[in-house]
Each structure stands twice: as C-alpha cells, then as structure tokens.
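forwarding from the other thread:

> can someone predict this with 5,6-dihydroxy-NADP?

sure thing
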Amino acid sequence: MLNFTFHNPTRIHFGEGQIKAIGAEIPANSRILVTYGGGSIKKNEVYDQVKSALENHTWFEFSGIEPNPIYDTLIKALDLIKAHDIDYLLAVGGGSVVDGTKFIAAAALFEGEDPWDIVTKQAPISSALPIGAVLTLPATGSETNTGAVVTRNGNKLPFSNPLVRPQFAVLDPSVTLTLSDRQISNGVVDAFVHTMEQYLTFPVNAKVQDRMAEGLLLTLIEEGPKALNADTKKDLEVRANIMWSATLALNGLIGAGVPQDWATHMIGHELTGGYGIDHARTLSIVLPGVMKIRRNEKREKLLQYASRVWEINDGDEQSRIDAAIQKTEQFFHTMDVPTRLSHVGIERSEIEGIIEKLTAHGMVKLGEKRDITPDVSHQILTAAL
Ligand code: NZQ
Ligand code: ZN
C-alpha cells in the first residue's frame, strides 16, 4: 500500500427528510446564496423543502447553472455575492451545480487577476466561501470531495482544492425519484467508472481498498438496472444503495493508498467539451478502449476484476481479460449508454482533432504510470470507434 493522508470532513445527512438538517448546519447569521440549475428542484419540491429549512435565515438565489457548468454563467454570481454580502453558498442540484458552486466559492475570494487561472493555471487559492450541498443526482461524488470541472469555450477543465469541499451534504434518496432514465444511467455509470479509475491499475496489496472498490462495483451492477426497471424503479432502497455507492466511489476513501488512473476521464472531458456528450456517456465509450489498449499494463488487476466482480475464472489469461471487457460493455448496454464513438456519431477522421485538444490541455502523460501519451490516447480512441 502507498502512503497516504486521508481527511474528509464533510458531514453527511443521509436519508429521507434530511433536507431539514440544513437549518442547523448553516450559522444563523449567515447571508446565504442558494445556487441551482435549470429548475428541476422546483418541479420535485426540493426547492420548497430548502425554503422551509431556511425560514429563519437570510438567503438569496442564483439559478441557471447548466449541466457541465459554464464559466460565463458562474462568473455572474460574483456580482450577486458582492451586492448582498453573501458569506455562505448552498448548492442544490447535481454534480454540475455543486461543481459550479465550488468555482464560485473560490472565484469570489480569488486574489489573482483572472479567476479562470484557477482552472487553467491551477492558480493558488488562499480562501473560499464555505459551501453546503443538497444533492439531487447521485453520480459525481462532488458533494464530499475537493474537485470541480468547469467549461469555457469548449474547454472542459478540472481543478481541486480542499477549501472548496462542502462542509456538509444532504443525501436524500427520495429526491432522486424524479430523475429521468438517462440521468439515472449517467449517475450509475459515472460512479462505476470512478471506482474503476482507482481500482484498475496495478496491485499494491491494498486489500481493503480493493475489496471496497469491488463492493461498490458489485452494488452498482446489481442495483443500477433496478433503477431503470419499471417494477423496481420507485424502490427507495435501490436509490439509497446507488446514492451511497456514488458518494463512496469518489470521497477519497477507495483512492487512498493506491495508484489512480483517470485517463478515461481526461479523454472523456474532450468529448464533452468538443461534442457536448454527457459526461458518463463519454466514460462508457472510453473505458473499454482503455481496458483493451492497457491490457498488459493492467493485466493483474484485470484478472482480479474478472474473477472477483464477474466470477470469470476459466480459460487462459487473455480470454479471461476479453470476457471481463465484454461483461463491462454488456453492463453499460444494460444501463443504456453508448460504448463506441460511432454510437454518438464520431468518426475516425475526428480523432486527430480530439487528440490535439487533449494535448493543448496538457493531458500528455495520463494514467497510473503517467505513460499514456497522446499516441496511446489515439490508440484508445481508435479502439473505441
Ligand atoms: O439543472 P436541473 O434543472 O437541476 O436539471 C438537472 C440536469 O439537467 C437534472 N437533475 C438533477 N437532479 C434531478 C434532475 N432532474 C430531475 N430530478 C432530479 N432529482 O439532471 C441534469 C444533469 O445534471 P448534472 O448536475 O449535470 O449531472 P451530474 O451530477 O452527472 O454532473 C455532471 C458534472 O459533474 C462533473 C462532470 O464533468 C459534469 O460536468 N464531474 C464532477 C466530478 C467531481 N466534482 O468530483 C467528478 C466527475 O467525474 C465529473 O467529472
Ligand atoms: Zn466522472
């Protein structure tokens, strides 16, 4: 196992009816900005629950944070923050709202000239507004982690800082019942791939992390399809298991003390930035390509994955690896997400342009050994055609 320091101080309120906990979480004299997206929270009464939980607080609102949050939108919140002396942000929504709010929190107190430097130059952040989160879409883990992804002019870029980790997060599985099938699928697949990015590397004898990761993968494989099936889609226990899996997949725990990959995500961000493809759907296209092209480098963990997650124990090594890749793709098909570039209309001739953008974004040494060069990324996308 590798050395690590683990600290995740986000307080979690899990379960039905927990939105009321935000009243006690946010200091009474705070001036709060409630941030949200395109209005789903008004249709499913989450907004009303937040409103009644904050009845004794002073609060304002900022709406319109879009999926894959856009810099030009987020930056508009800064005027509101100044005008109303805001000192606390409450993000109510999916990963995009939480991520966008993280950027706003850092930009509001940024001492440099251009807040975009936070993302492009990893400019130092010395303070940020405190954040709380009411999560409505289990997927990203953003509600308890330090990361965020922001888009500007088709450039989708991540940043990470402990100062933007939410102080608390409300996870009420009942608010996920209004998700469309597409968003349910996206969430399950995103959480699945987060787990894979921290698991499918090379062995460091981290038994607990491995078995926790396998537990998350098995849970998502078991519960994900149930959330799409008409007979079970309203089952709150299914939603609870998915929601907790998604948080644990990216709260830092399974990634502590193990190598991490993230090539699938970085290549995937180019597909969202350039073509507007949903985040999770880029991952279901890229991951099988990564598994195929990195089958030698990932051999031991691929075999472990095959055996422990899919119970594939017969045949020679190569055929077990092939079968594990096939099972992964089948699972993605069950979740109704694409697994090939051709499924989303991207052709061979476009790969070069995608690689150019990846290179321009500095993503030239990806993977757990930093040896996924643009050439290897090219091979990965070619394998995904
Ligand atoms: O905007 P509203 O109206 O709220 O609608 C949203 C949005 O259209 C809707 N939605 C959310 N909760 C709902 C709901 N509709 C009905 N009922 C509900 N309860 O779902 C749509 C998609 O929401 P979005 O927040 O974009 O989805 P997701 O949570 O998948 O977030 C994706 C973003 O997170 C980033 C992605 O790159 C992408 O930008 N990620 C953030 C990470 C992190 N911070 O650690 C890691 C991830 O790998 C990922 O990169
Ligand atoms: Zn993701």
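Residues 37-41, 44, 67-68, 93-97, 99, 136-137, 139-142, 145, 147-149, 175-176, 178-179, 183, 186-187, 190, 250, 265, 279 surround 5,6-dihydroxy-NADP (ligand 1) (CB under 6 Å). thats all i got for now
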